[in-house]
What does this fold into?
Amino acid sequence: MDPEILPVWTRTFRAEATLAGPRLDAKLSGSAEGPAKESLDAFLAQVHGSAGKNAVKEVVVDLRGLDFMNSSCFKCFVTWASKVQDLPDAGRYRMKFVSNPEVHWQSRSLHALKCFATDLIDVE
It folds into this structure.
């Protein structure tokens, strides 16, 4: 785990991150809704800060264990992508989302997110 990024562990939602050289790996699981929004916002802000501080080239977000995410929580990804877009070119990093093909909302939602920032976001 990255000591700069506090993990989120609630009854229904988990988020944790690991710094791996020029890459930062984040893993989300469970159900992100309601009370998880504030925790997810804080978690992604820490991911963004650590990526900048450590000159990370790519953040990989593993969503394969994430069963559900409401629109309020999904908006956290849009806000995060917007922050990355606002960085100078030299400070930007790629965002790669690893999805679960069996969880249909992920492919639809992540496709829309990729359209928001095609130059920064990859979906696998």
About this structure: The chain has a mean pLDDT of 92.
